[in-house]
Amino acid sequence: MNSKLFFLLIGLTLMFSGWVAAQEPEPDKTLSPYFLVQGDASDVEQFALQSTAAEVKIAGVIADVLVTQVYKNDGKRPIEAIYVFPASTRAAVYGMKMTIGERVIVANIEERQKARQQYEQARDRGQSASLLEQQRPNVFQMNVANIMPGDHLKVELRYTELLVPESGVYSFAYPTVVGPRYSNQAAAGAPANEHWVANPYLREGAAAPYTFDLKVDLAAGLPIADLASRSHEVDVNYEGKDRARVTLKPEERTGGNRDFILNYRLAGDRIDTGLLLWQGERENFFLLMAQPPKHVRPELVPPREYIFIMDVSGSMHGFPIETSKVLIKKLIGRLRPEDRFNVLTFSGDNSILAEQSLPATAANIANAFQTIDQQRGGGGTELLPALKRALGLGRSAGISRSFIIVTDGYVNIEKEAFELIRNQLGEANVFAFGIGSSVNRFLIEGLARAGMGEPFIVDNPQRAEAAAERLRNYIENPVLTDVRVAYQGFTVSEVEPPSIPDVLAERPVIVFGKWQGTPAGEIVITGKTGEGGYREVIPVGSTKPADTNVALRYLWARQRIAVLDDFNRVDPNDERVKEVTKLGLTYNLLTAYTSFVAIDSAVRNQDRPPVTVKQPLPLPQGVPNLAVGGAAPGPRAAAPMSMGERMAAPARQAKSDAKPAPAVDAEKVASELVAAGPVAAIETLTVTGVRTAADLRPVIETGLDGIAKCLAKGANRSGRMTFTFTIDAQGRVTDLKLTTSELGYGETERCVKEQIKHWGFPTGAAAGVTVTFAIKP
User: Fold this and answer.
1) 197 partner at 20 to 30 Å CA-CA among 188, 505, 528, 583?
2) Beta bridge partners of residue 733, listed in sequence order
3) Side-chain half-sphere of 741: how many Cα atoms within 13 Å?
4) Are residues 48 and 83 in contact, defined by beta-carbon separation less than 8 angstroms?
């Protein structure tokens, strides 16, 4: 064995041993998710979650949901299972219990740090325990400790949420899988509640390793006109004019890779408006839902400016980006001549159609369509720089401005994005479109809420055109402005929201609050429409408090918590943190600062500590491997991994799951790494003309394999080389020049130039390109 290989083997041996021993991520690693790499430890259960199911009971406008997760251990060692899963952003989680055999342990709500401390102490003592934490308002993490060999352990959690109709349609959404979050945050030093981002995923097309089931019992209170699921195949059995039972068809048992969506409409397109009351021992709560007026005539709407911010990153490849094209083109194509617009695309970098918004002329719209059609999807998801650039654009005087953000939301900077919009937005609305089968609803809804606009979710291509039409109706036809709610003879307090924003669609006005004394008097809603004044009176005395409305206390507290959390994202404040914590403890709710913990009193594991297993998640339906840094299907491929990345991929899996590293043929690995040679990666990419970097990057990334072959022949193993070239209208490379090189080896440069000459780009307008490759050993 030569000396070079000998020392490399020693280094590899140390690295492999470090994979098992290290407990914290390496300082140069980010929190990005990764693909599951199965080890050879056959005595450890790697897929602990056996099934997840939901039983949904909808009464009027309130849904109550029981989620059941069953964990198993078919291995030979005790395990601790960690499962990251989504929930509705409106969910108020108010209960949890754990069942082991015939023993049922009801969870307690505790301050977050106290709950985790109790859980870890129980785990280390050998007791079975479960811990439910909120990582985002729509992302939860379940830890279940000391699942013994042969165990089937059940965890149940309960939540409630309010169903808000839009244009007469009610929609219940049950999220099933958390999409991968792009993150450039260093893992070392990251707070504990961010580590969930570095979660294992199965590759594109792989079925979920657990079964999924869902049942809905609907008691609408009024006759049901239409009821259907647009996401899953279901059976519907009617049990009267206003009652129905919905179950999944057997073939949907593996349908846990996309959100379950159930839509229904009441007879005559009616909305179940009115007042709900609940009377408790110490507090009373009310919920008001009032039908808004109809749309006004379009000619009464002033000119508007629309800025479209389009995500063209790797996770948008395929259905999401093609749907985005349909959506944005539909919106731009329907603009009036007096309107203005702009288009900004972003992935790892961003590009804009024009530095000032353009009039909606036929020529400008055609040019925009050409730019949009060229997008393919590739690279990271740097949303913040794109938002900053869009918000910094010069305003058009006398025109109302709206931003339309189109993304799947697979980013990890929700807090920063909300803060940026709140601080810099000014007088404008934000309409956020979530595109994909399992979008990050927290980001989509939070962006809209921060920007005083509305969120939209498009979960399949067939709905893109209808969604575009809905947005156009929202923006062009405001329903009600200057909304005021007055309480006459009815004593209320702690009302949410304290003021009502403009109503931009046929969506009811919703108000939560507490009441005192006797339910009497009137609630009066007033406002302005495009055609005059508006006034609606709701008599309070005709409504009686009902025990079935107990969910109002949870819904009010959840609404109050959401408002406090929004303020905390902009201006963190210890007093607000204390208030959220108090609300969570008082109303038995899961929050960012309170968690549920259940501990079995019996010590079941006295032999050895449990092996930690992170439950791998399926990629959401339609999301490609590009979302986790893998290769897209077809001829395109992602940039090859560097030597360090190739070595780190299995390392992160072994460390994160705390399992023994699989047996490794170190000499074989060393030989492969030596043979692989240096790796090229795009360091900078600048494009001039109407084309965008996001459009050209996929072709260049595909060509990196050829460049790597050239580098393997060279003597130098690291450095940079910069090329400039022009792409003509037929997509051919012309005027190719090598402007700088640190490699100093003429044959390598000549080989790379020959590779670039044969690249073929999409046809379109001419563009100038400057690209720098970073060569790593």
Assistant:
1) 583
2) 727
3) 18
4) yes
Q: What is the DSSP string of 367-413?
A: HHHHHHHT----S---HHHHHHHHHTSPPPTT-EEEEEEEE---BS-
CB 405 within 8 A of CB 343: no
Which helix (H) or strand (E) segment holds residue 10: the answer is: helix 3-21
Q: Which two tokens stand for residue 619?
A: 């990629």
Give pLDDT, residue 675. Answer: 43
Using the Cα atoms of residue 179, residue 185, residue 186 and residue 187 in order, give the sign of their dihedral. negative
**What pLDDT shows up at residue 393?**
84
Token pair 């599951």 is at which residue?
Answer: 36
**What is the pairing mode between strands 594-603 and 127-136?**
antiparallel
Per-residue pLDDT tens for 165-214? Answer: 877 889 999 999 988 876 767 777 777 778 888 889 998 888 889 999 99
Sheet holding 62-72, edge to edge: 103-106, 92-100, 152-162, 62-72, 49-59, 211-219, 243-248, 234-238
Amino acid at 521: G
Show contacts of 664-668: CB within 8 Å, 24+ apart. 664/12, 664/16, 666/9, 666/12, 666/13, 666/16, 667/1, 667/5, 667/9
Q: What residues have CB less than 8 Å from 617, skipping those under 6 apart?
A: 84, 177, 178, 199, 200, 201, 202, 208
Residue 669 to residue 653: CA distance in whole angstroms = 18
Give the pLDDT band of residue 726 (cuts 50, 70, 90): confident
Span 589-635, pLDDT tens digits = 999 999 999 999 999 998 889 999 999 999 888 777 877 865 443 33
Using an 8 Å Cβ cutoff, are 133 and 592 in contact? no
Select, from the ranges 183-192, 251-260, 287-296, 303-312, the one with the highest average predicted confidence (pLDDT): 251-260
Q: How far apart are alpha carbons 616 and 625 in whole angstroms?
A: 14
DSSP string, 439-501: --HHHHHHHHHHTTS-EEEE-SGGGHHHHHHHHHHHHHS--BEEEEEEEES-EEEEEESSSPP
Distance from CA of residue 129 to its chain's centroid?
A: 29
Q: Which two tokens stand for residue 28?
A: 């140069």
Give the integer Cα–Cα distance in Å for 394 and 390.
Answer: 9
Instruction: Name the pLDDT band for 79 (thresholds 50, 70, 90).
Output: very high
Q: Is the peptide bond before 497 cis (omega within 30 degrees of 0)?
A: yes
Which amino acid is it at 184?
Answer: N
Residue type, 179: G
Residues 6+ apart with CB under 8 A from 487: 521, 522, 523, 524
Q: Whole-model pTM?
A: 0.64
Contact 443, 466 (CB under 8 A): no
Q: What is the C-alpha separation between 203 and 737, in angstroms, rounded?
A: 39
Which DSSP letter does residue 627 get? G
Whether the CA torsion 229, 235, 240, 241 is positive or negative: it is positive
| Integer CA distances (angstroms), 488 to 278, 373, 519, in order | 19, 56, 11
E strand or H helix at 238: strand 234-238
Classified as helix, coil or strand, 322 is: helix
User: Residue 542 and residue 525: Cα distance in Å, rounded?
Assistant: 17
Counting every residue, how long is the chain? 777
SS3 category, 773: strand
Report residue 297's pLDDT band, with 50, 70 and 90 as the boundaries. Answer: low
Could you tell me which of 615, 614, 621 has the C-alpha nearest to residue 254?
A: 621
Average pLDDT in the chain: 79
Q: Which amino acid is at 222?
A: L
